[in-house]
Amino acid sequence: MSKNASVVDLLGDHFINSLAKNISRRRALVIFLGAFLVSLFILFYTNFKIFFLYWISVYVCIQLFNIKVSFNRKRDLKKSGINEIDRMDGIAFEQYLSHLFKRKGYKVRITSSQGDFGADLLLEKEDERICVQAKRYSKQVGIKAVQEVIGSLAHYSADIGWVVTNSTYTRPAIQLAKANGIKLVGRNELIRLIIETNHIGENGVSDANGRGDETTIRELMCDDCGAKMVLRQGKRGKFFGCSSFPGCRNTVSI
């Protein structure tokens, strides 16, 4: 009996771990328990062969589900331009978010880099003011970022605070944000936001255009003429310039 129980436990762990790759472990456990109850019903009213085929089909469905989710994630990564964002510095990321939120209909102000009082961007729309702390990180964003945006709310008379990152958050940061009503926009949420806002096509985000160090950033659009903004290298450093230059001379400093 104990041997059979250990086999069931082993199979259960395998199926749950396979499901938990793309959904929460609790949900995976619920799905497995449901499948297990169905299998008992099949075993009781049919035979072992059908019982065995049932579990084979469950396993195949799980693998197909994981393949589909993995494919969708890779497609979204390609469409979102997240790899371009990963190569930005902090100031460029703030500029990027400024353009992104403008396209979402917000009035945007980038605060001074010297003494920003915990907010990198101020968003306003429909009498709501939002403080945004932007974190272009290669590691998890910790509790300090949440503390900073909480501290900025009173100074800027804001209604709500957001932290936006290309990365993920530590558990303490998530807990503190939840306790104080702070919205956390992590990597996956940022990808969805970009795709929803820009309706980017299947060809990706950046492409070589054969003009030196220029790199097309399709998410950045010119506020004056609507053309694409490109990253250029000038005498004083890098900046975003309109791709329709010299017809349009709009630039965004970095």
Molecular structure report:
- With 254 residues, the chain is an alpha+beta fold.
- The protein folds into three domains: 2-80, no CATH class; 82-203, Trna Endonuclease, Chain: A, domain 1; 206-254, no CATH class.
- The protein has helices at 2-19, 25-45, 48-80, 82-86, 90-103, 143-155, 171-180, 187-198; strands at residues 107-110, 121-125, 128-135, 160-165, 183-185, 215-221, 228-234, 237-242, 251-253.
- The chain has a five-stranded mixed β-sheet, sandwiched between helices.
- β3, α6 and β4 (160-165) form a beta-alpha-beta unit.
- α1 crosses α2 (25-45) and α2 (25-45) packs antiparallel against α3 (48-80).
- It is elongated.
- One of its GO terms (biological process) is DNA topological change.
- Residues 222-254 form the DNA topoisomerase type IA zn finger domain.
- Residues 85-194 form the Restriction endonuclease type IV Mrr domain.
- The chain crosses the membrane at residues 28-46, 52-71.
- GO terms for molecular function: DNA binding; DNA topoisomerase activity; restriction endodeoxyribonuclease activity.
